UniProtKB/TrEMBL annotation:
Recorded GO MF terms: phosphorelay sensor kinase activity
Gene Ontology cellular-component terms listed: plasma membrane
Domain HAMP: start-end pairs: 183-237
Record has Transit peptide as a keyword: no
Name of the featured protein: histidine kinase
Alphabetized SUPFAM superfamilies for the sequence: ATPase domain of HSP90 chaperone/DNA topoisomerase II/histidine kinase, Homodimeric domain of signal transducing histidine kinase
Enzyme Commission code: 2.7.13.3
Reactions this protein catalyses: ATP + protein L-histidine = ADP + protein N-phospho-L-histidine
Alphabetical list of Gene3D superfamilies matching this protein: 1.10.287.130, 6.10.340.10, Histidine kinase-like ATPase, C-terminal domain
Domain of life the protein comes from: Bacteria
InterPro entries: HAMP_dom (IPR003660), HATPase_C_sf (IPR036890), HATPase_dom (IPR003594), His_kinase_dom (IPR005467), HisK_dim/P_dom (IPR003661), HisK_dim/P_sf (IPR036097), Sig_transdc_His_kin-like_C (IPR004358), TCS_sensor_his_kinase (IPR050428)
Entry-linked Pfam families: HATPase_c, HisKA
Amino acid sequence: MKLKNRLSLAVTVVSAATLLTSFLTVYVLVRRDETRDLDLALAAQAHALAQIADAKNPGRPAVLDGVAEVPESLRPTQRYIAVYDERGALLSATMNFASEVPSFESLGASTALPTEGVPVDLDVNGKALRGVTVPVGNGGAALLYAASRRTVDDDASFLHRTLGVLFLSATVATALFSRWLGGRLAGDVHAIARVAREVERGNLEARVGGGAHGSAETRALAADLDHMIEHLGALVAAQRLFVSHAAHELRSPLSTLRGELQLALRRPRDAAGYQRTIEEALVDVEALSRLSEDLLALARVQAPHSQGSDVMAVGDIVADALRLARGPAEARRVSLEQAPETTSTNGPLLVRGDRGEIIRALRNLVDNAVAHGPAESPVLTTITRRDASVEIAVIDRGPGVAKEDEPHIFEPFYRGTRDRGDDRPGAGLGLAIARGIARSLGGDVWLDVAHQSGARFVLSLPAITDADA
């Protein structure tokens, strides 16, 4: 069954059941209260008449025709009276009973009547009556006092018709409204499902937009779906760009390597010549190996994975990273300096994670500073505790990052304007890998744009205390 029909049926059935229960309760209570008021009025009049009749003729009371006072009746109501002796035999009755005086047994009363009387419904000469049987005197006689219950029946009939019309109207209105509401909700579901099918077919430009307007929840769901599709499109675009850049970066050394090997095969040479060819090819192979390792590292940090739980001192990590970066630094006669830790706590600063990954992230920043700073200039590394984080800053004295490059330097394969102009080696993956590692540990890497006279990159990691360790 469709959502629209199922929702309409469910709401209509529940509403109809609730209305029917409520209306039946109201009908029963109103009829009961009016009947009780009529019984009280009849009982009062019956007791008064019983006292008068017993006083006039003790032991054999007589009755007279007259009118009764019925609640809510605007005109005199004929009263019906019958008197029975202690054995239930009829003693006297009003003329309006004619030949249809009810027997004492039909009244549902016993010879020992309660003081308040016993109410009973009667049908005399085609008229619906309401009566009450009360005791007369102390001799065991009984008096039946009855009057038309037309006021009660008329009110009940009016209430029955009114509630019936209200029930039908409310049920129809509820069915129409629930069907309309179900149609709006189902329309939202269809719109969202249609966009989902479009995305499944590869159309990442599909959006729900204003197609969902049935409820706040479906509008929020549509907005979330649009946001997810937009994010998915960005991821797919980034993946395609990544593959394109990776293929481009791999093609250059592969083409060079292939050309060198083809040339070596076409032109015979001596052992020294072949050795030079092999050495040149080995340089390209090493470049390919480094690029492959960087690609694997970037893919690893971008994919969800569990991090190590090693606890280590930040100073030791910085020392290891500087030691590994000493080779490229000595080649450019760059000195690597480490400033003392700046902390308000006793003992070394501690972080948690994979030691090798953190060292790789920090070394990428140091290698970047060595490569972009001027030769024979120092690269300074500082360690600072800031709130709940440890900040490791790498500072060089180079020209800094160009303004137009600042928004893009952490994108994979992005190379700054100066790098492209100088034709420096590298695929532009170092900063992307460093940021990926930091974020996987709950930290981050950023460029301090306020720093002057060089570039200052900051690696931030969550700090832990001795108690946490």
